[in-house]
Amino acid sequence: MADRLAKEAARSDGTKYGYSRILISAIYREAAEEAILKWQEQWTKTSKAEATKQYFPTLMDRIWTKINLTSKLTAVLSGRSKTKAYLYRFNLREDVKCICDKDDQTMDHLFQCIETRKQRDWTKLHLSKQKNWLANNLELITK
After folding, report:
1. Of 46, 53, 106, 112, which Cα lies nearest the Cα of 82?
2. Is the whole model's pTM more than 0.70, yes or no?
3. Of 50, 80, 110, which closes a domain?
4. How many domains does the chain divide into?
5. 138 lies in which domain range?
């Protein structure tokens, strides 16, 4: 029956339906947009991944951020990095106190801790100095 109807429609000039060519890139784009919307809906509803949501509240935040995912970054984003509190859970550390002695060493605390902020600032400063030195001396290095 389907074949007969298809043949009739092909032979008829008064077809009710008109089809235009759709670019395959448009189909891919629409499929990607639909997938992202569904993924965002699931992301919003889930109670898991709270550590990751602190860095990337929406999927578009993550998609637009150009970063290389490494095992260490994944550990931080998942809240499973090797902090004292995390290692204590597995009986691999005897204490959980941060170097500031004010709170347990968790990922949340590390981002607020004054002592670790000093270390981060020092590291950033020296990395930027190295980057500037390399940029200024690139000709000497490559010769």
Report:
1. 106
2. no
3. 80
4. 2
5. 82-143
Give the dihedral sign, CA 19/24/29/32.
Answer: positive
2: its two tokens: 């389907």
Neighbours of 75 (CB within 10 A): 16
Q: What is the pLDDT of residue 19?
A: 53
Q: Is residue 140 part of a domain?
A: yes
**pLDDT tens, 57-101?**
888 888 887 778 888 888 877 777 888 998 998 999 999 999 898
Q: Domain for residue 143, yes or no?
A: yes
Condensed to tens digits (0 to 9), the pLDDT of residues 48-59 reads 887 788 778 888
For 92, the token pair is: 């691999």
Q: Are 58 and 64 in contact (CB under 8 A)?
A: no
